[in-house]
Design a protein that fits this description.
This protein is α/β, with parallel strands linked by helices and 274 residues long. The chain has helices at residues 41-48, 71-78, 96-101, 110-115, 120-132, 148-161, 178-195, 206-212, 235-242; strands at residues 2-10, 16-25, 30-34, 56-61, 64-65, 81-84, 166-170, 199-202, 215-220, 223-228. Helix 5 (120-132) crosses helix 6 and helix 6 (148-161) runs parallel beside helix 7 (178-195).
Length: 274
């Protein structure tokens, strides 16, 4: 479980990006983080994984408060948090398999990472993950030979290779076409359900978020102004979050029929409790 309690971020300039943000995410729940640009969504994700230092409040993953951690303890805690990036963050010259195995860098000695000689168990698990995301046949391809949707699937497999306890997902569909966006959102929600993973998805496409995510948290000016089931997000609330607009005609390609979507290959066993 992830517990955020009165999380606040004020920069040296005096600008406050987050204002006493408080919520919990139980095991297996996938939460969408919505709101206009500048609302604090990216800052919130970066405060959770400590890429940005919070000014006040707590971020608790299980029994561990991440905010006071430093040095080796912080590096160990970050291994428990998988990150999926908008721009994929792959090493283009490396193969798909090598990119997935990079998710294990925090667990292996430097000499193994430098020579890319990973333990057999890690390699076997990487093949299994590639099978799960539908890229087993592409294991030996260079990352720069893949489409955008394929790259995002590599990013998902890499994050899962960490064996994380939490997923942070930053705009996973921003660069993808509507059909691929649906496939990626479905894949993320399926693997979280299979492994009991809580996740936060920073997303701008509200109809897509409503279609696939368990819960939505709306931020405005660094404050939580909505936290409820997707079907409770009405026009009045959307106006409160984003400002005045005619929401009655809002549509998304996420509403298209899914019958021609690529099937996700197979279910993975749940993450071990160890």
């Amino acid at each position: 479980m992830l517990t955020i309690d009165r999380l606040t971020k004020t920069y040296a300039s005096g600008d406050t990006a987050l204002r006493e943000v408080t919520f919990q995410i139980p095991q297996g729940q996938v939460v969408g983080l919505i709101g206009p640009s500048g609302a604090g969504k990216s800052t919130l994700i970066r405060c959770i994984n400590r890429l940005v230092e919070p000014s006040a409040g707590t971020v608790r993953l299980g029994e561990t408060d991440l905010v006071p951690l430093r040095g080796r303890e912080l590096r160990r805690a970050r291994r428990r948090i998988g990150m999926i990036f908008q721009e994929y963050a792959l090493v283009e010259r490396l193969t798909v398999m090598e990119n997935v195995l990079s998710g294990r860098l925090g667990y292996v000695p430097f000499w193994r990472s430098f020579t890319r000689r990973f333990p057999g168990q890690d390699i076997e698990n990487a093949y299994r993950l590639l099978d799960r995301v539908g890229l087993l046949a592409h294991a030996d391809k260079r990352a720069d030979a893949l489409s955008g949707g394929q790259r995002q699937r590599v990013g998902i497999a890499r994050a899962l290779a960490q064996d994380p306890e939490l997923l942070l997902v930053d705009e996973p569909t921003a660069s993808l076409d509507p059909k691929t966006s649906r496939q990626i959102m479905r894949l993320i929600t399926e693997v979280c359900a299979e492994r009991g993973l809580p996740a936060i998805v920073n997303i701008h496409d509200v109809p897509l978020a409503q279609r696939y995510l368990d819960r939505l948290i709306g931020l405005k000016a660094g404050q939580v102004v909505f936290d409820d089931a997707p079907d409770r997000l009405d026009d009045m609330t959307l106006t409160r979050i984003y400002g005045a607009e005619d929401w009655s005609g809002a549509e998304s390609d996420a509403d298209a029929v899914d019958g021609d979507d690529a099937a996700t290959p197979r279910m993975m066993p749940a993450r071990s409790a160890s």
